[in-house]
Each structure stands twice: as structure tokens, then as C-alpha cells.
Design a protein that fits this description.
The protein is α/β, with parallel strands linked by helices and 499 residues long. It contains 16 helices and 23 strands. 39% of the residues lie in helices and 22% in strands. A 7-stranded mixed sheet has the order 15-16-17-14-13-19-20, sandwiched between helices. A 6-stranded mixed sheet has the order 10-9-8-11-12-22, with helices on both faces. Bound molecules: nicotinamide-adenine-dinucleotide (NAD).
């Protein structure tokens, strides 16, 4: 059986311990490979390699670091088809979605190519007699990223491209469910001219994560995953003095106003709710309709649109979405659908029990649609992370804004309207980190930054953009005086407040 090993110091390294994870093919339910789980010795090997490589990498001038990023970008583009198929085979998302996963990560690699400009500091000439002050951004040292299963290309690229471009070295601990793509990215980084030890991949579960959080050599950790684990990682990392950014789960709402272009809204939301089997942190699993007429029309059209979706294996070019990632997750999503029924919501489309001929073992769930979901329900409060759309009926915009604002998660939100004033008001009032106006999945472009609020994000600084530059570097400020210049002679340096 195919074995997926760690990638340390530019080499594939087999695990030393007996612990391994099974990698499934979600289309068939079969085990297709195994991945080594790191023990402390393997993690230490990666830390040592990253620590040894870091001083020289940080001393490499930023233009040369950028050239590696440019080359990496080209290599990923050249290999995009192979990468997308590999990604789909372990994740289950359709190949077109895997291309999207790769593309959105690639855009951050592209942004990181601007590192010479991005890392320039600040300078004040003549802050005092003969005194200049300048600030520079310096690398932190050894850094790490811990990533979820649902974007095995995009999220690792968000993290390592920014960190490495800034002169750090990096240890990536990807999801154990689909670990092969991250290893391919590390191989391509070497092919792009990246020095050994700069990008390392260590596989594993809680033990590897705990090791990263405890390691004194690791200065900063970025985490993306579910909220309870994000909170755990944040608390433990900060307790050990690390810089931490930890993104968690989500339950994004889409508000449909009475004046929305209904045809467009339904088209957008059907993709945002069911695309990638709903396994996106920026999916839109809650539709809030404002007014009875809007609600009735939306539900009728959405039921038709969802019924027309094709669920298929990830290589089927006509499939809108593929299987969910695992049997455990399939059971969880189906359990939440049952709970929704028990809680009294109206199940208009039931996707449970879907089997595909020839792929009976695959983890498929058909599109499911609930109407009349209420804020007090557990299925409203919790993240379902499957192809399930819940419709909540509101009477007014004020009531609709309260729903995402008061929800435990605050990742993304969208409003569908033709009223600029209502949209503007909504964007400024809503208690959520990323807002779309007639945009169903408002993932910001790479030169802005990504981050949710409340239980969707713990710690400071967003992912990528200038926020990424700040997270992955530390500022040093130098105040310099050259006696004799500017005719100040040996005049004493006086701090203004002391004069
Ligand atoms: P997860 O929390 O199960 O796993 C994330 C990472 O944590 C993995 O690398 C995993 O190995 C590790 N991990 C798992 N259990 C752990 C434990 N007990 N202690 C320490 N580490 C542990 O998440 P997932 O199922 O892989 O991904 C889906 C979740 O990620 C969803 O909740 C989704 O909303 C969230 N997500 C959030 C964002 C965002 O940017 N906010 C983006 C993508 C996914």
C-alpha cells in the first residue's frame, strides 16, 4: 500500500514510530494509502532542520527569496492538473473545485512574490539633532502551521508562502485525512530552488500538534480547523509564549432582502451552500429571508435548484459536488439532519441514504433543505459542514442582522439586495469578520486579508495580505545618532520629554 512519509530537510523521511493513519478514498470508502504519524523524535528532527536552515534563509536577500516564490508559482501552475486530481482523490471534492482550492492558494504565493516591497521598513530622517530612526521587519525564526482537511492546498499556501517569504522556516502539520498534496507542494518548493529545511512537512494527530505547541524553538503558529481545537491550540500556544493565530468553524448567513435579484441570489446560494458538499468554512449554510413573500419565493426556487444538482464521484466533470470526507463525517451530517427534524424544522429535501451505483461505499449525501429553522435550535447553533441549507424566516432587516451578529460564529456573511443604503448599513453594523454584498462567498483577495470574528478566530492578525506580513515578522526599531553630522558636534542627546 502507498505510504505517505514526512518531508524533512528536503527528503522523504519514514516514520520511526508504529502509529499511522489510514487515508481513504471518499468516492469508494476504501483505504488507499497510509500516512506516518510523527512522534517526538521526528518532530525534533524537523525542528532541528528548520532551525539550522533559518539564519541563512533570513540572510538571503528578499529579491532572491521572491525568485523562489515566482518559480514555485510557475511549477504549481504547470502541475495544476496532477495536483488537482491528487487532492480530489483524498478529499473527495470535484476536480474543478480542487483547481479552485489550488488557485486561491496560488494567489497568496503570488502576493508573497512581492516580499521585497512588502517587508520594507519605515524611516524618519532627523528625528532629533543628527538622529534618524528606522524600523525593519525581521523574521521570527522557526514557525509552524496546522491545517484542516477541507482546503489541503489553499490553507497551507496561505501560511507557508507568507512565512517563508518573510525569512522564516516552516513546519507544516497538514490534516491526516488528505496529507499527500501538502507533501507535493514541499517537493515543488525544493524544485523551485528552496533550500532544504526551509519547508518541512510533519504528519500526525494531536500528539504532533501538542509537540509543536510545546517546542520552545517554534516562535509562531497558525492554525485553521474546528473551533474547539482552535481554542485549545490558541490557549496552549499562548501559554507557551508563542505568537498564535487560530481560525475556527463557521455558520455563515446570507440575508435575502425583498428587493434582491431573486434569480441571481438563488443561483449564488445554491453554489455557496452545496458546493464542495458544504465543506467550506466560507460556505453559506443559512439563508435568512426577509418577509413572507421573499421567503416563499426563495424556498420554492431553491428547492428546484437544489433538486437539479448532480452528486457524483470527484472525477465526474458533470457533478456539482462529490462525497463528504469520511464515514464519520457522513454519519455526523446525517445525524444533524435527523436532529433538525426532531427539533421541528421542515425538511423539504432529504439527502440521506444516497448511494451511487458502482460506488456504494462512497460517502455521498444529497442536497438537503430545511425551512422554518429557528435560532433556538441546536442545528442552527452548530456547524453542520455538509450539503444542508437551513432557511430562517425574518420579518425585517433589523431582525435579520441580529441573527449573524448574535451567532457564536462570525466568519462570513452576505446580503442580497439592490438597496445601497441597506447594504452599507448592514456591512457596518454586522458583528462578523468578512461581508459580501451580492457576493455569496466573500473570501478576500490575497492582497486584503482573511479572518473571522468570535468563535471563528482566536488571536491577532488575519491570514495573508499585510496582516500576514505582520503576523510572520517582528519589528525592530533603531534610533541612530552620528555625532558630528549636521554640525551638532558633541551636543548631548536629550530625550525631548526630559528637557
Ligand atoms: P479539525 O479541527 O478536526 O482539524 C484541524 C487540525 O487539527 C488537523 O491538522 C488535525 O490533525 C488537528 N487536530 C485534530 N484534533 C486535534 C486535537 N484533539 N488536538 C490537537 N489537534 C487536533 O478540523 P477539520 O475537520 O480538519 O476541518 C474542518 C473545520 O475547519 C471546520 O470546522 C471548518 O469550519 C474549519 N475551517 C475553518 C476555516 C477558517 O478559516 N475559519 C477554514 C477552513 C476550515
Amino acid at each position: 500500500m502507498r505510504q505517505v512519509h514526512h518531508f524533512i530537510n528536503g527528503q522523504h523521511v519514514a516514520g520511526t514510530g508504529a502509529r499511522k493513519g489510514d487515508i481513504y478514498n471518499p468516492n469508494t470508502g476504501e483505504i488507499q494509502a497510509q500516512v506516518d504519524f510523527a512522534d517526538d523524535a521526528i518532530l525534533q528532527q524537523a525542528i532541528d532542520a528548520a532551525a539550522a536552515a533559518q539564519p541563512a534563509w533570513a540572510a538571503t536577500n528578499p529579491q532572491r527569496r521572491a525568485r523562489v516564490m515566482f518559480k514555485l508559482k510557475h511549477l504549481i501552475e504547470e502541475n495544476a492538473d496532477e495536483l488537482a486530481h491528487l487532492l480530489s482523490s483524498e478529499h473527495g471534492k470535484v476536480v474543478a473545485d480542487s483547481h479552485g482550492d489550488i488557485q486561491r492558494g496560488l494567489e497568496v504565493v503570488e502576493f508573497a512574490c512581492g516580499v521585497p516591497h512588502l517587508s520594507k521598513g519605515e524611516y524618519t530622517n532627523a528625528a532629533g539633532p543628527g538622529i534618524d530612526v528606522f524600523s525593519m521587519r525581521q523574521a521570527l525564526g522557526v514557525t509552524a502551521g496546522i491545517t484542516p482537511f477541507n482546503f489541503p492546498a489553499m490553507i497551507p499556501m496561505w501560511m507557508f508562502s507568507m512565512s517563508i517569504a518573510m525569512g522564516n522556516t516552516f513546519i507544516l502539520k497538514p490534516s491526516e485525512k488528505d496529507p499527500s498534496l501538502p507533501v507535493r507542494l514541499a517537493e515543488l518548493f525544493m524544485e523551485a530552488g528552496g533550500p532544504a529545511g526551509v519547508l518541512n512537512v510533519v504528519h500526525g494527530d494531536k500528539q504532533a500538534v501538542d509537540g509543536i505547541l510545546a517546542a520552545p524553538e517554534i516562535r509562531a503558529v497558525s492554525f485553521v480547523g474546528s473551533s474547539d481545537i482552535a481554542h485549545y491550540v490558541y490557549m496552549n500556544g499562548t501559554a507557551n509564549g508563542k505568537r498564535m493565530q487560530c481560525m475556527g468553524g463557521a455558520k455563515n448567513h446570507g440575508i435575502i432582502m425583498p428587493d434582491a435579484n431573486m434569480e441571481q441570489a438563488v443561483k449564488d446560494i445554491v453554489g455557496a451552500a452545496y458546493g464542495s458538499a458544504g465543506e467550506r468554512c466560507m460556505a453559506l449554510p443559512v439563508a435568512v429571508t426577509v418577509g413572507k413573500k421573499t421567503g416563499d419565493e426563495f424556498v420554492e426556487r431553491m428547492a428546484d435548484a437544489a433538486r437539479a444538482l448532480k452528486v457524483g464521484v470527484s472525477t465526474d466533470p458533470e457533478a456539482h459536488y462529490g462525497p463528504v470526507v469520511s464515514e464519520v463525517h457522513k454519519n455526523k451530517v446525517e445525524g444533524m439532519i435527523q436532529l433538525g427534524v426532531d427539533e421541528g424544522a421542515d425538511l423539504l429535501l432529504d439527502g440521506r441514504g444516497l448511494t451511487l451505483q458502482g460506488n456504494e461505499g462512497g460517502y455521498f449525501i444529497g442536497p438537503s433543505l430545511f425551512d422554518n429553522v429557528k435560532p433556538g435550535m441546536k442545528t442552527y447553533h452548530e456547524e453542520i459542514f455538509g450539503p444542508v441549507l437551513q432557511v430562517v424566516r425574518a420579518e425585517s432587516l433589523e431582525e435579520a442582522v441580529q441573527l449573524p451578529s448574535q451567532h457564536q460564529y462570525g466568519n462570513g456573511v452576505a446580503i442580497f439586495t439592490q438597496n445601497g443604503q441597506a447594504a452599507r448599513e448592514f456591512a457596518s453594523q454586522v458583528n462578523v469578520g468578512m461581508v459580501g454584498i451580492n457576493v455569496p462567498i466573500p473570501v478576500p483577495v490575497s492582497y486584503h486579508s482573511f479572518g473571522g470574528w468570535k468563535r471563528s478566530g482566536f488571536g491577532d492578525h488575519n491570514q495573508y495580505g499585510m496582516e500576514g506580513v505582520r503576523f510572520w515578522s517582528q519589528v525592530k526599531t533603531v534610533t541612530q545618532r552620528w555625532p558630528g553630522s549636521e554640525n551638532v558636534g558633541d551636543q548631548a542627546f536629550i530625550i525631548p520629554t526630559m528637557s
